[in-house]
Amino acid sequence: MIADFLVYGIINTLCVVLISPLFVSMIKKVKAWSQGRQGPSVFQTYYTLAKLLKKEVIYSPNASWIMRITPWACIAAVLVASLFVPLVFVTEPFGGIGNIILFLYLLVLARFFMALGGLDAGSAFGGMGSSREMSISAVIEPTTIIVFAALAFVFKSLNIFDMVAVSAAAGIPVSPTLILIGISLFIILIVETSRLPVDNPETHLELTMIHEGMILEQSGRNLALMELTAAIKQTLLMALLINLLVPWGLATTLSFAAVAVAIGLFAVKGVILSLVIGLFESSMAKMRFFRLPSLFMMAFFFSTLTIIIEVFA
Amino acid sequence: MTDPAFFDGIIKILFVCVIITAAYIITTKNLISLVRVYALQSLTLVLIALALYWYEGTGILLFIALITLVFKVIVIPYFIATVQEKIRIKRDIEFHFLSPTSSLLISLALMLIIYIALSRILGDTLAKGSIGSPFFFGAVIGISLVLMGMMVTFSRKKAITKVLGYLSMENGVLLFGLFATELPFIIEFLIIIDLVILILLTTILTVGIDSTLEEYHNRLHRFYLWEEQEESP
What we know:
The structure holds 2 protein chains of 2 kinds.
Chain A: H1 2-34, H2 44-54, H3 65-82, H4 100-120, H5 124-155, H6 160-170, H7 177-192, H8 211-214, H9 220-245, H10 256-282, H11 292-312
Helix pairs in contact in A: 1-9, 1-10, 2-9, 3-4, 3-9, 4-5, 5-7, 5-11, 6-9, 7-9, 7-11, 9-10
Chain B: H1 4-27, H2 31-56, H3 59-87, H4 100-125, H5 134-155, H6 159-179, H7 185-208, H8 213-222
């Protein structure tokens, strides 16, 4: 039991760390294709991270200890959160891990430190990015909670492990209302990973940047950690969407063959989802800041509707 | 005859599709996709009617599916699309009273109210245990669709989107008719004929409702709605 969980932890963490950069560069590649460019290689994010890890870290003279612990706090929070989402292999949850509310708060903890780090260096861009990020997260938070509450209603459980186990046993989406939740989760994925209608991940234009503004002062190894944090967060949300909506192929017993197949399938499904995200992003223009709540409202509408349908129908 | 659980699943998926299209009709600003989504919503109704036929085996449902397919999926959207192409309006970004976001919130509240109201009204007439069945929920979604269509009708400014709101209301009536009561076929047919006439009239009036009769003819020419050559005097 405990041994199983240890193995699960090792496999899951390795998977999430190794596969996250692939999805990031896959999305970049798709966007480049849709613009008629060739784009960087799909391994580019790995090279970038490796190079950044070797570089020297420089702190602003105004920076305090917050700047120094921010990258570590962020990566620690998302790595613990990554244990909550079974990517390729579901086991019995151990010691209360998998609670959906704790999962959300771990993600918020990473975001909190990121915003503090943006403010800490004293640069104007960092402050702007942090304040925007905090406003957006204040608006998206109720929606996120409702979406996950809808998930809990559909699966009758607050534990992500139970949810994934149920849907892995079924092999198909367990309830038609999951289509509605899928739309909501997709919107949350777009917002949380600061993608196009909300924030442009490719620009350093001061008027629009949110996420990039906050990590502008990070350098070297710390920057690599921050980039990896963002990538892992994206993979986690993608994994939730994938493993709840198209769960077939997920390993439920610990055998080498099953896990290997599950890893392969997960990579394929993730790449397909990255394709969808990339195409979605290419087809959108950035929204004006005050128009964003109408996007969140879509997610809110669909997830509330799910709860209504689950309770009444 | 057929497996009820499977039927339930299919019907639920179709309900979800209807709701998604309704939400899209409320929020979108692009007229071309509005018409396409309306056609999609009607197609979903066709599928629901077919699923019901497969479950119940009443022949009249086949006819309803057929005329819905012919008129609401093909004829009416085609007609509106051609008119739209001619008057060259692509987007409707003006709203009265309600922004799309608040319309969505209100439609949620409406659904809840309708559910409570219907469970009181139909609770006595329907057999015990039927609340919570797809038939009851279909009636709820039908009436919600009517009210959501009404919201589209009064919150949009352009006449052509008002018409689409009205059409979506009619879809709601059909859905309610399919699930709650046995709507006589002749009435459904008459409604469709009415709709076609209404579309014809409104698309013509959209161009010229604020003009005099003399000016109206000129406008028809200006928007290329009247292709016939002028006779030389």
